[in-house]
Amino acid sequence: MLLLLAPLMLACRANNEGTIHPTSAAQPRWYLHLQSPSAQRHQRMVMIRSGFDLQLSPDMEQALHQGIPLHLTVDTRAARYRRFWAWLVSEQKQQWRIQYLPLSRQYALTAPDGARSTYSRLRHLRAALKTPHQFALALPEPARLDVPYQVQIRAHMDIQALPSPLRLPALFSPQWHLASGWNTWLLDPV
């Protein structure tokens, strides 16, 4: 009987009063979340709005400070929605580039349109990413206005954009796998 309870006793801890609380798995201190995502349909366009809450892992910060740029990729897609399936009709990838400039000791954020902003601290760059950005997703020309569309957005750090010697270690390290997961909306017909 004691052998059966040993795993349970290891998974719990006692506080000063003697009550037992289950221990929770340690949450990583690095993450990537979408901030207040929303989507609206305008005739043959879908406008998606979201900011990004990014906390880099220690390995990512070290690589950034050693001159390796990091790429934040945002995937958006729209599909014509039916009861049990959806047909993908439009898809778009956009990429932000984060890099450290050692001579000026600043961080640079390059947007998908090529606009570049510099920040004196990494926390200021993170605050700029948190502000909502707008993504326009064009529906194909014969887009039907009388059917609902399923719209999705996600963000992830692009490991394939890293230099070749760093890709393999990054594939196997959990510190390099930052992704927000898909946010999905069902937009009614116009």
Architecture overview:
This protein has a six-stranded antiparallel beta sheet. A three-stranded antiparallel beta sheet has the order 3-4-9. The chain is α+β, with helices and mostly antiparallel strands. The protein contains four helices and eleven strands. Helix content is 18%, strand content 45%. It has a domain at 29-138 and 148-167. The chain starts with a helix and ends with a strand.
Task: Provide a brief overview of the structure.
The protein has helices at residues 2-10, 58-65, 122-130, 164-172, and strands at residues 12-14, 20-22, 31-42, 45-55, 70-81, 86-101, 106-110, 116-119, 133-138, 149-157, 183-187.
Low-pLDDT residue intervals, each spanning 5 or more residues: 1-24
- Please give the alpha-carbon distance between the first and last residues: 64 Å
Radius of gyration from CA coordinates: 22 Å
The shape is elongated
Average pLDDT over all residues: 84
Largest sheet features: 6 strands, antiparallel
Structural class: alpha+beta
Q: Given the structure, what is the number of helices?
A: 4
The fraction of residues assigned to DSSP E strands is over 45%
What order do the helices and strands follow?
A: HEEEEHEEEEHEEHE
Helix residue percentage: 10-25%
Which strands sit side by side, in order, in the main sheet? 8-7-6-5-10-11
Per DSSP E runs of 2 or more residues, the count of β-strands stands at 11
